[in-house]
Amino acid sequence: MADVEVSCRLCGASTRPIGRQRLLDKYDVEYFSCPRCDLIQTELPYWLDEAYAQAISRLDTGAVTRNQMSARLTAVIATLLELPANARCLDYGGGHGVFVRMMRDLGREFRWFDKYAENHYALGFEGDVTAHYALVTAFEVLEHFADVRGDLEQLFASQPDHVLVGTVLHAGHQPGWWYYLLESGQHVAFYSRRTMAWIAEKFGYDVIAGNDYSLFVRRPLGAIRRALLSRLVERPGVAALVPRPVYQRRTLVEADHEAMRLRKGQTP
Prior knowledge:
The protein has 268 residues and is an alpha/beta fold.
């Protein structure tokens, strides 16, 4: 495999092989690094049907904690961006809908979209990926993209005003890096700050990149607001220090419940 020229699945440049790693304890998989955009990728993934026998890996023990942190961070960022409570937002790759439900509980008009997982917690609040949104979130999604360029084009297609993604950035290839998640085989693309800058330029955004989260914005930010957002993105734990009344909007729990009753014709 190392003797075959492999094109970057993001920018199309010729990549260089950086070594093999064993996925799912059975497949010896070649990894490649792109000199142009700095994406690290596996060889074309042929094992994904097996890797996704369950949409959520049993190794993802941090799913609930991550959703809690991401919801708080997103709510604070939306407040700093001065998004009104009724601004249309979408969680792309929303899994079982836990994050969308959390955001609606915080009073944000979030919708759910996922091509692979089943919506359990945000039923009735599915979104159209082709519609325009003030904010699109995508947490623990980009590293799953097999067709990196095509999937990113879908994510940015409607030119949302802001895009907040959560994926751990690499600082160069390190064999056995935990985020390769070799046991699950689901992570097949890995990004760096340079990769995020390439994506931002490609799709017409500016980007604030932190180790775990990156925020893409279409309009210029004032110096103070950018500084505050940079601190949040680079140190997301700071969001926990923000008092809840600052970012809490009127919860949609009761309104959503009534809307679902009306939709099913179950009102008295």
